[in-house]
Amino acid sequence: xxxxxxxxxxxxxxxxxxxxxxxxxxxxxxxxxxxxxxxxxxxxxxxxxxxxxxxxxxxxxxxxxxxxxxxxxxxxxxxxxxxxxxxxxxxxxxxxxxxxxxxxxxxxxxxxxxxxxxxxxxxxxxxxxxxxxxxxxxxxxxxxxxxxxxxxxxxxxxxxxxxxxxxxxxxxxxxxxxxxxxxxxxxxxxxxxxxxxxxxxxxxxxxxxxxxxxxxxxxxxxxxxxxxxxxxxxxxxxxxxxxxxxxxxxxxxxxxxxxxxxxxxxxxxxxxxxxxxxxxxxxxxxxxxxxxxxxxxxxxxxxxxxxxxxxxxxxxxxxxxxxxxxxxxxxxxxxxxxxxxxxxxxxxxxxxxxxxxxxxxxxxxxxxxxxxxxxxxxxxxxxxxxxxxxxxxxxxxxx
Length: 399
Ligand SMILES: NC(=O)c1ccc[n+]([C@@H]2O[C@H](COP(=O)([O-])OP(=O)(O)OC[C@H]3O[C@@H](n4cnc5c(N)ncnc54)[C@H](O)[C@@H]3O)[C@@H](O)[C@H]2O)c1
Ligand SMILES: O=C(O)CC[C@@H](O)C(=O)O
Description:
Blueprint: E1 3-6, H1 12-20, E2 24-27, H2 34-40, E3 46-49, H3 57-62, E4 68-71, H4 81-87, E5 90-92, H5 99-114, H6 117-125, E6 143-147, H7 151-162, E7 166-170, E8 182-183, H8 187-193, E9 196-199, H9 213-217, E10 224-227, H10 236-244, E11 250-253, E12 277-279, H11 288-308, E13 329-336, H12 341-351, E14 356-364, E15 367-374, H13 380-387, E16 392-398
Parallel strand pairs: 1-2, 1-3, 3-4, 4-5, 6-7, 6-9, 7-8, 9-10, 10-11, 11-12
Antiparallel strand pairs: 13-15, 13-16, 14-15
Helix pairs in contact: 1-11, 5-7
Bound molecules: nicotinamide-adenine-dinucleotide and (2R)-2-hydroxypentanedioic acid.
GO biological process, one term: L-serine biosynthetic process
InterPro entries: ACT-like_dom_sf, ACT_dom, AHAS_small-like_ACT, D-2-hydroxyacid_DH, D-isomer_2_OHA_DH_cat_dom, D-isomer_DH_CS1, D-isomer_DH_NAD-bd, NAD(P)-bd_dom_sf
GO molecular function: (S)-2-hydroxyglutarate dehydrogenase activity; NAD binding; phosphoglycerate dehydrogenase activity
């Protein structure tokens, strides 16, 4: 029986679905440290994580028989994707299932900050009735600057325009501007005109410290700042200075450079005393709708990979979308992307007079993946010959 370990309170539908597909499933509420994870992965075939469990090179080296990692979230920066690929370990995520939830949180942040709701709430909680319009604004007609116009940034763009905001965006890549959104040629062009700046870049390493003192300094007087992307992207010390000096009028932060591993763990931030500040514990994607959708989506990718060898939507292996086996056995062969591997696979099968019922090849960067449905079971010697082909990383026979 294959074994799955699901960490970080993944939606129960994922465990149910994996059990329905024959997995023995263990679940845990929090994230694990590197050493704890290495221990916990003993005998595990697939592991499910969210954003707090780091699946590092050391973990993957220690557990080379692991077959797949499911990131039950959008971000995959917590997994060493390149090394997982080199080891033949497939990694999947849910690229769209919580997009809408993040967008709704950010819209909520923008409206609340522009109406100074955190400050008003704070005052009333302390018995101060401060009925004033000072510093409060409608969002209609204001300029929203979106940094990173991917799935979240572009959906936010559409909904913000529906609220009457003017949208400008900045992205490293050429992107289709939706609605009336305007693409800025430089980050500073965006910062100098935006009443609200929101970051939605991905978690690539080079985005570490991407938004620091220089970028805050370029923001408009009284603008608001939001980060719901990754904690290491923005310098919160610099943010605090710009709030304290009165340059910025408010901020919402959902992600932090260091986050607790599980609910209930202690947490501190220097931003706690800021007046017009929304602090949320990395809940951009934490809605019941999103978590249920993610649970279904990622467990299905893991099941398809385990049962069919399908790498469709994998983030680190060549993608092949496979249906049911058309022969008596399916041989999934992952290898270094060298010339001649496919020919070598077919020569080995041909020498045994084995007919090929179906075959698919995908290559991506350094990796090649050939999946062959064969009309008779190859002998042990043939399987050994396939495993010995130069560049073979991993081979599985799926019946
Ligand atoms: N707070 C949460 O709970 C939560 C939930 C989901 C996703 N996220 C995070 O939100 C972020 C965005 O997610 P997505 O699904 O839209 O990602 P995406 O990959 O669809 O979009 C990211 C965009 O950012 C652009 N980009 C990357 N680096 C950039 C830079 N330095 N300058 C300008 N543009 C840059 C990319 O070209 C891409 O268009 C990710 O970091 C993801 O991990 C957070
Ligand atoms: O649920 C999580 O832990 C991560 C949410 C979010 O950051 C994501 O990458 O989807």
